[in-house]
Amino acid sequence: MTRFRIFSIAGLSLTLATAAFTNAAAPRSSPARAASPAAQEVKIPVEQYTLKNGLRVVLSEDHAAPTVSLCVTYDVGSRNEQAGHTGFAHLFEHMMFQGSQNVGKGEHLILVHVNGGDVNGTTSDDETNYYERVPANQLDMALFLESDRMRALRINQANLDNQRSTVQEERRLRMDNQAYGKTGEILEDLAYDNFAYKHSTMGSMGDLNAASLDDVAQFFKTYYAPNNAVLALVGDFKSEETLAKIKKYFEDIPQQPAPPAVDMGEPAQTGERRTVVEDSFAKLPRLDIVYKTVPANTPDFYALDMLGDILFAGPSSRLYQKLVKEKTVALQVAGGVNFRRGPALFQAFALLKPGQDASEVEKLIYEEFEHVKMDGVTPAEMQKVLIQDRLQQAQSMTSTMSRARNLGQYAVYFHDPELINTVLAKYSEITPADIQRVARQYLGATARTIVLTNPKAQTGPAQ
After folding, report:
1. Which residue from 257, 267, 195 is spatially nearest to 226, judged by alpha carbons?
2. Cα 74–chain centre separation
3. 192 vs 332: CA distance, rounded Å
4. Which residues contact 70 (CB under 8 A, 6 or more apart)?
5. Of 6-20, 92-106, 329-343, 371-385, which gets the smallest average pLDDT?
6. Model confidence, pTM
7. Which residue has the higher pLDDT, 457 or 222?
8. How many CA atoms lie within 13 A of 15 on its CB side?
9. Cα 92 to chain center, whole Å?
């Protein structure tokens, strides 16, 4: 399953805060190995419509609870940014809560909260989404709030300056002044050649400082148009009535020209790439190894996803057993393939114990990769991760918000919200031979990129 896990020596699971990994959870089934009665299969109802202005609408009725979850996913992320204009997608996630034509500054959040709901937004390389969960009788309010800011966001110098400062402070907090905060940015810059994924979603301080009001207004006009968005709604409503409401609030918002296409192509890597980073905030060495692979929702992606689970998912996984339990060289391990519309990274991560030789740990990781290439994986390993991920996804899908976000993501990424029901079959088709093949094809020595993050040596007097 597409998550990036860390497992501590105590066996407690922590998930890295990386949206490209956490937002893409997908259920699995393997009828040949773990068959279950057809009555246990749950098919999520999906209805699709397109308004006259190009807004795509995905509706899924669920009357189990008197709530509705609404997610508006815009087809824009950091991959759409140009050199010299990084950080715009994330900046707009913040700008979208600064008021619109009929909604005051911060009022969107207040109205949702005082009416018993919750609301937020996220930005990734490939999308920006805004979502709220409200009581069913507040659906009109949620639709109005989302339509008003899509129609007429309040873009002025005061809001830009305020949110620019907020985003820059967020970068300081999460990256510049955080242990290992810059490791991911350095890793992607080294691994990728194409600018789309080469730069971070957070953007650079210089580009954020240089952003003008005209730049921001043009970004909004280009990417925050109805024909560049998907509205997904899950919960307690009647589809026919709700579609009429959506048309009432959204259909007269003007359509805009389609945004420019994004080149995500990557040339074949022909040699290992490596760098060492000193981190003033780190206390232990961290080793990251990545390989460029394939986009999500492709046959090889599903095989790589399962390989990641076998190697990294849980205390019984191969590399946890080898690095943490058997060799006792690492405190944490994690890995897997991330969920991207373009070439994704298959990553291995290890937080080393004090005094360990990073090159020896690196060799141990490669040895396990070679075992998969030579000997493959077992049906028992496959069944184990299928059961684990099937349970986890079933738990996730009890949330109408999780469903709304998945439907919006599948519609934007692949134009296929029905993938929420068909992805099981894609995983069930993967065989041990497929996993062995993708390990051989993608985990080669010349295709890897390595970043070793070391604690910076203290130069002052001993404390």
Report:
1. 257
2. 14
3. 26
4. 131, 132, 133, 134, 139, 142, 143, 146, 231, 232, 233, 404
5. 6-20
6. 0.89
7. 222
8. 13
9. 17
